[in-house]
Amino acid sequence: MRLKDKTAVITGSANGIGLAAVRKFAVEGCRVIMADYDEQKGNDEAEKMREKGYKVVFYQVDVANRESVNRLAGTVTREFGGIDILVNNAGITRDGMMARMSEEDFQRVLEVNLTGVFHCTQAFLPALVTSGKGKIINTASASGLFGNVGQTNYAASKAAVIGMTKTWAKEFGAKGINVNAVAPGVIETEMTAKIPEKVKAQMNALIPLGKFGKPEDAANAYLFLASEESDYVNGIVLQVDGGIMM
């Protein structure tokens, strides 16, 4: 098993790509700490995994709140002694055209998608350093690489995550920690389910593979970057987008 005896924290893991990653990691022998704001959904999904014999627990967290993140890190350190993998997957959207976007919507997306990644990484960094061989995986986006109409806040947050990823890859490499990012394209999640069918058809026409990705596609990229197979991979942004941004 590719993650046997490893311990991972995955934020934003009650649904979508994060939940798919939980399932992938657990099957590969990993102890998985699910962390999400949605307490009911998170507990339900963790219970389903435990019923199948996997080592999965859930803790509620608000990644935008430093006290909440510190409590999570303290609890995980006490209960598990440390971690080997941190997946900063939590994120939100509040789309709107620039001319009409409210300051509240702009700031809230940055608080969760950007500041939340900073909070979690700083809080768990001591545990990762202690492990002597840690992996940090940040969720970026094709929007962060190429921009997207109606996503000033989201694109800004993800572009900044890419900048932090490359900076941390340089800072933490000497400590034995690999830092990489995954940039999903259009993935079939609750977010994209709200897109009108006509718009979906137009988007599909732009994707060389002719279809949206599935959460498992991005989770497979997380698994690779979390495993020993990527031990000499550092500071990359792995695009999982069906070729839409070639």
From TrEMBL:
Belongs to the short-chain dehydrogenases/reductases (SDR) family. Keywords: NADP, Oxidoreductase. Its EC number is 1.1.1.100. Coiled coil: none annotated. The gene is fabG. Gene3D superfamilies: NAD(P)-binding Rossmann-like Domain. It is an enzyme of class 1 (oxidoreductase). It comes from the Bacteria. One of its GO terms (molecular function) is 3-oxoacyl-[acyl-carrier-protein] reductase (NADPH) activity. Residues 6-185 form the Ketoreductase domain. InterPro entries: KR_dom, NAD(P)-bd_dom_sf, Sc_DH/Rdtase_CS, SDR_fam. SUPFAM superfamilies: NAD(P)-binding Rossmann-fold domains. This is 3-oxoacyl-ACP reductase FabG. PROSITE patterns: ADH_SHORT.
